[in-house]
Amino acid sequence: MTVTENRPVMAITGGASGIGFATARLWIERGGTAVLLDFNEAVLQAGLEQLGEHARGVVTNVTDRASVDDAFASIQETEGRLDALVNCAGNSRPVPSATMTDEDWEALIAVHLSGSMRTCRAAHPLLTAQDTGAIVNLSSVAGKTGMPQRASYTTAKAGLDGLTRTLAVEWAQDGIRVNAVGPGYTRTPFTDQLITEGKLDPAPIEARVPMRRFAEPKEIAEAIVFLCAPGSSYITGHTLMVDGGMTIDGNWYQ
Questions:
Q1: Is the pLDDT of residue 91 over 90?
Q2: Helix (H, G, I), strand (E, B) or coil at 130
Q3: Choosing a second label site near 47 at 20 to 30 A (CA), which of 53, 60, 118, 166?
Q4: In the predicted model, is pLDDT for residue 4 greater than 60?
């Protein structure tokens, strides 16, 4: 990767696929440099080949503090700056709550919630140095609703909203804005795989969304990039729902 002076730098966890990858692509198109932090080395390398010279990858496990700290030390050494952090790393493990094991619970909390806390903490010194740093955490419609068999996922996403508000207040004095984006159902490669395997039926989801469709990854990326850009300089502590109206739909009441 060739680092170009004055290109704003964004670090993206889970950046090698889905919404994270779409965000990296858009950030680069708008004149930035993207550092993809992802635990899957093969997927990471494939993504970097598509993004070109203004992208770099660091194999990172957000559940491990040493791995996270090493990733941001690498950014300090190579890019020398960090303007934005986007926490996209995530997983899903639906299971009935009555039979959920500790491992089922902790696996999602460790990635979505604790992982985001680790990266925010590690990114803080670099973002403070810029005095205009921005963080975007990936919340979800699941953080606003009660979804059966997804207790760990919905709890993690609701927790991210709380983390976002607290850091926004605490770190405002450091010149860091902290927001969240709450995607609705999005046509990522993972979603497409679930549909192909018959594990996800898109019909009732599309019927539930007022706009009657899934989001495209770039539509979520547009909101993320906006919240990291100067045009949102007075927005902090907000969770922007990008869900086609799913969480505010009152049309059930006729």
A1: no
A2: helix
A3: 118
A4: no
Distance between CA atoms of 176 and 168, rounded to whole angstroms?
7
Contact of 143 with 157, CB cutoff 8 Å: yes
Mean pLDDT of the chain: 94
Distance separating alpha carbons of residues 19 and 36, to the nearest angstrom: 12
Write down the pLDDT at residue 228.
98
Backbone angles phi, psi at 71, to 5 degrees: -65, -45
Q: What's the rounded Cα separation, in Å, for the pair 191 and 211?
A: 18
217-241 pLDDT per residue, tens:
999 999 999 999 999 999 999 999 9
pLDDT number for residue 105: 96
Beta bridge partners of 136: 86, 179
3-state secondary structure 151-186: HHHHHHHHHHHHHHHHHHHHHHHHCEEEEEEEECCE
User: Strand 33-38 to strand 176-183: parallel, antiparallel, or no bridges (unpaired)?
Assistant: unpaired
Q: Could you give the CA distance from residue 123 to residue 100 in angstroms, rounded to a whole number?
A: 33
Backbone φ, ψ for residue 106 (5° rounding): -70, -25
Q: Residues 37-42: what's their mean pLDDT? A: 96
pLDDT digits (tens, 9 = 90+) for 71-82: 999 999 999 999
The reply to whether 153 belongs to the active site is yes
Would you call 31 exposed, middle or buried from its count of C-beta atoms within 10 A (0-12, 13-18, 19+)?
exposed
Nearest Cα to Cα of residue 40 among 106, 88, 2, 109: 88
